[in-house]
Write a structure and sequence with these properties.
Elements: E1 4-9, H1 13-18, E2 29-35, H2 38-41, E3 50-53, H3 64-82, E4 86-91, H4 95-105, E5 108-112, H5 123-130, E6 136-139, E7 152-153
Parallel strand pairs: 1-2, 1-4, 2-3, 4-5, 5-6, 6-7
Length: 158
């Protein structure tokens, strides 16, 4: 029986990195979750187990807190519907609520710090590392092991 593996990330570069792992999709009972944008709607043609959260950025100070709360409830709904054994994420904020829910309910969390950062931590990476949300914390650059000494160097996913 195939394991249920959820792949989740924010849109843009985080999603681009996550989709580099699409060769894994056929090995598992996968689900893919990202933010609903015009550009991401076309992903339905290729990924049939695709689910959307509300798009929002922290730059929109008034609407972001409401979207974060709504996405937290939507994440709980998706989690209960999909029951992932593993949650794999490249961040950022969209993945936070889902990974916290998954941790509470016993899913294994795999966090991959973004390829874009070579010498600085991301906000999501810092929180996941400090709060030990991820069971496996992977960096794509050896230089990042100085910032995350207990991380695993995994190399590039490109």
């Amino acid at each position: 029986m195939k394991r249920n593996v959820m792949f989740i990330s924010s849109t843009g570069g985080h999603l681009g990195e996550l989709l580099q792992l699409n060769s894994l999709f056929k090995k598992y009972n996968y689900s893919l979750i990202t933010e609903k944008t015009k550009a991401n709607k076309s992903l339905r043609k290729k990924y049939h187990k695709l689910y959307f959260l509300f798009y929002g950025t922290k730059d929109h100070k008034l609407s972001y807190p409401f979207k974060l709360i709504a996405n937290s409830f939507l994440s709980l709904y998706y989690y209960l519907k999909l029951h992932p054994d593993y949650i794999i994420t490249t961040g950022a904020h969209t993945a936070g609520p889902m990974c916290c829910i998954g941790r509470i309910f016993g899913s294994k969390i795999i966090y991959i710090e973004t390829f874009a950062n070579i010498t600085t931590k991301t906000i999501t990476g810092s929180l996941f590392y400090k709060l030990k949300i991820a069971n496996l914390f992977i960096v794509q650059w050896k230089s990042m092991l100085k910032l995350y000494p207990k991380a695993t160097y995994g190399g590039w996913i490109y």
